[in-house]
Amino acid sequence: MKFIDKKIKKIAVVFSGQPRSIEVTHRYLKDFFNLESVGVKTDYHFHLWNSADHKSASKEPNSKNSPDIKLDHVKFSNSDLEVLIKDLYDPVYLRIDDQKTDPKMKELKAIAKHSFPNELDYTDQLRDVIKKGWFKEYTNNESFEKVKWVTAHIGQLESASRACEKILFFEKKFGEKYDICFRMRTDMVFKNIKTDPEIKLSNFVRMWNIIDDHRCRGLLNPVFVTYLKLMQGIPQTGDHYFVGDGQSISNFNKNAGYAVIKNYKKLIEICMKEGFEIPNQKNFQKKRDLIGDHSPHRGLHRPAETSWAECAYMNKTTLISSPFVQFLDYSLVRSNVPKNASIKEICSIWENWGKQMTSKMDKHRSE
């Protein structure tokens, strides 16, 4: 691959999903994406739901060590959240919706409700699968409309779709394309946050070259992901961040809300036919022993994560495992992170959260 001395002029950072940990992460993310000193303009795009269910491995916070803990469901008024985001990021695009009252979300819930087998159609193998592991959290015998993944996972993809809906509009409006776009969540920070602007710029140029190289090979709309793998024959990819150009990111997230329904239905059909027990905890633990526990859910077969691969399939996007891992190494900022936490503290808390989650999953599985 021949590297071109590309002049990066403009990037877009696109946030979507629930407004988790915004007041913690903005200090680090704004610094990371601040490239004014090297002539790069950063535009922020947002779609957020007006409420957040914080992630926690334990419902018993240590209030002495973490006085700013918020474990409960948090809901903002649209106006308060809008003021907060504008104050923190001054975005070029901001849209806030309520998952519970949103017409499109109601439509997606209705589709999901009628897309899965009734209990009478369950095979013995599927009944056995549903009694174990994370399937308890995603299925029940009453109504798929009430299941947690409907709002949490479909909402995740639908929000990403809305966050990206104005990327091409702004490119056309200002007559400038975004050289690189990052689709992200609000509850993460990059570990190497103090990287020198010149070093960051050189990394962005390298990203652009890699993206352009894949495009020149004839690959459609290349989008780079943090990881990409096959589990039980179904591709899955993480949702923490995606990197591409404006066209690729916009196309990839188009109509994303429908993908989770299609993929989850496919997953259940496979279980009914084959009697898979998902996830295979022993294999998962083996991988954790090898790669460490910095990312507690990697290796699990999760319906939301398979759906990003479905988005690529539906929208003719090429997903590529990220070559930017070292530069874009990250930690998630969960609900047990104090507002004034340093990067080092965030990383430590994230590691501990992973260990607690593994312990919790093992206990849940044995019940």
Sheet with the most strands: spatial strand order? 5-2-1-6-11-8-12
What is the overall shape? globular
Q: Which series of helices and strands comes N to C?
A: EHEEEHEHHHHHEEHEEEEHHHHEEH
- The end-to-end distance, rounded to whole angstroms, is 53 Å
Structural class: alpha/beta
Q: What fraction strand? A: 15-25%
Q: Give a short account of the largest sheet.
A: 7 strands, mixed
Q: Point out poorly predicted stretches.
A: 57-71, 132-147, 274-300
Number of helical segments with 4 or more residues: 13
Rg estimate, integer Å: 20 Å
Mean pLDDT: 77
What percent of residues adopt helix (DSSP H or I)?
A: 40-55%
Using DSSP, what is the number of strands?
13
Describe the protein in words:
The protein has helices spanning 22-32, 78-89, 103-113, 124-130, 135-138, 148-163, 167-174, 197-216, 246-252, 259-274, 281-291, 303-314, 343-366, and strands at 10-17, 41-49, 51-52, 74-75, 93-97, 180-184, 188-190, 222-225, 228-231, 234-237, 241-244, 318-321, 330-332. With 367 residues, it is of the alpha/beta class. A seven-stranded mixed sheet has the order 5-2-1-6-11-8-12, with helices on both faces. A hairpin with a 2-residue loop joins β9 (228-231) and β10 (234-237). α3 packs across α6, α4 (124-130) crosses α10 (259-274) and α6 runs parallel beside α12.
